[in-house]
Amino acid sequence: MFVAENKQGEYAGSMVGRPRTISNADVFAAMSDVLVEAGPGDLTLTRIGKRLGVSGPAVGQRFGSKHELLVAYATNAVESVDVVFAAAVDDSAGPCDAIIAALVAMAGPVGTREALANSLALLQLDLTDPELGVQAALHGRAVRRNISDLIRDAVDGGELVTDDPEELADTVYTTYNGALVTWAIDGTGALADWITTRINKSITPAQRQCLDAAGAT
C-alpha cells in the first residue's frame, strides 16, 4: 500500500517481494493511460493499481476516492501546462514553432478517434462537476497565457505582427480545440499534422513574417 510520503512525493506500494516506490507522477501517468484507453466511465482504482503493480485500495488510500483522484489529476494537469510550454521552447527554433509544438504535445496521448472520444467524456465531467470545472477553467487560462507570452516573443523577434497578443492567443487556442473535434469527425492524416495546419491558418499571412518557423505542413 501507499505509505508515508517522502520529500520527493514518492510512496512504497505493496507488492509480492520487494516494495516498489511510486510517485504521484506515476499514478497520474497510469491514470492518463486508462482514461485514453477506456474513458472515465471505466476508470477504476483497481485498473490504475494494476498498471502500477499495486492494489486498487492502495491507490484509494493515498487519494481517498476516485473523485479526489480526478481532482488531483486535474490539478496536476494545470500545473503541467507551464512545463509543457517550457520544454517546447527549449526544443523549438522560435516562438511560433514552440506554440505548435506545445499544443501538439498536449494532444499527444490522443492518437485515435476512440481515444479522443474518451477524452471528451472526461470533459463532460469537467462541465458537470464544480471542482473539476474550476481546474478545467484554470487549465484553459494557463494555456492561453503561455500562447500569449510566446506571441509577444514572436512580435519582439519579428516573426509576427499583431496589436493584440491576447486576442490572437484566444484565436489560436480556439482553433486548437476545434481542430481536435474536426479531426475526429472527418479529419485525415495524423492529428499532429491536422493541428499544425489549422493553427498556421489561424495566423494570417499578413501577421506571420516567418511561416516556416512554425513547421507548417
Give the helix/strand layout.
Blueprint: E1 10-13, E2 20-23, H1 24-38, H2 45-52, H3 56-63, H4 66-91, H5 95-106, H6 113-128, H7 130-156, H8 165-186, H9 191-202
Describe the structure concisely for a colleague.
By secondary structure, this protein is mainly alpha-helical. 67% of the residues lie in helices and 4% in strands.
Rg (CA only): 19 Å
Helix content: 55-70%
How many H/I helical runs? 9
Distance between the termini: 48 Å
Strand order of the largest sheet: 1-2
Percent range for β-strand residues: under 5%
The largest sheet is:
2 strands, antiparallel
Shape: elongated
Give the tally of β-strands.
2
> What class, by secondary structure content?
mainly alpha
Q: Mean pLDDT, as a whole number?
A: 84
What's the assembly state of these chains?
single chain
SSE pattern, N- to C-terminal: EEHHHHHHHHH
Low confidence ranges: 1-12, 14-19, 210-214
What do these coordinates show?
The protein is mainly alpha-helical and 217 residues long. It has 9 helices and 2 strands, in the order ββααααααααα. The chain has a two-stranded antiparallel sheet. α2 (45-52) crosses α3 and α6 (113-128) packs across α7. The chain is elongated. Residues 1-12, 14-19 and 210-214 have low confidence and may be disordered.
